[in-house]
Amino acid sequence: MVKKGVQTFSASLFGFGSARPTFVGGSSPKFHTEVFLVKSKVLVICALFVSTGALAGELSIKPEVIYSTSQLRLGNEKFTTVSGATLSSDVSNSRFVKGLGGALNLEYELNDRIRAGAGVGHVSYNEQHGSNQPNFSDLFGKAQLSYDFLKVGDLSAYAAGGASYHMVSLNTERGEGFKIDPSDVQLWNWDAGLGARLKASDNVSLGLEYRVTNTFNHDRMKVKYAAGDQALKTDVNRVNLSTNEVLTSLSYNF
Fold it and tell me: Which of 34, 86, 160, 210 has the most Cβ atoms closer than 10 angstroms to its Cβ?
C-alpha cells in the first residue's frame, strides 16, 4: 500500500483522478510561522526604511483582491526501502491551479513617479482537485518598488518589481487506503508586474495590475505516507512556485 502511495504521488502530485478524497487541513509547525513572520517583517521594514528617506510624499493603504493561477514545480523524490536501498524517481510538475485571495499593503510616494510598498497576503488554491491538481494555500509577505512611466491626466501606467517570501502549505489527504502528509515549504520569489492607477478623488485611487512571480531559491519538502501500521518518509527536492496574478485594488491616501 505504501509503495502504491509513492507511485500515486510521483505520478499525480496529490491528485486522485476523478475520485475525490476526504481532505484534512495540514498543520503548520510553529517555528515555520515564526520564520514567516520574521521574514515578512524584514520586507516591510526595508520598504518603510526606503520610504522614510523621502522628504515629501503620500502614505497609502492599499487592499487588493487577487485572482491567481499557480504551478508547483518539483525535482525528484527520494526514499529508502525496507532493505536499506535508496531509490529516487522524478515527480511531475503540477498543472496550473486557480486560486482566490487578498493582500493588504502600505505604499509611500517617494516622488511623483516612484512608490515603495510592502504588505502581506494569502491565496487559497483549494477550489479544484483532480489529477495533478494539488490543494494548497500560500501565505506571503512582499516588498516592491513601482515607477509610473506614463501619466495622462488622472490615469497612470506603471511597472513594478520586488521580492516576496512564501509559506506554502499543502493539505494532508486521505484516499484509496493510505494517507499523504506533506510538509510546508518556504520560498523566496522575485515579482514583476504592469499596472494602471486611476485617481478617483484627492484621497482614493483604483488600480488594476498583472503580476508574475517565480522562485529564485528552492526548498525541500518531506512527505510521509501511511497505510495501516506501515509508514514511509520521502524527500522531494527543488520545490518552487510560479504564479500569474490579476489584482484589483482600492487605495486610500492619507
Answer: 160
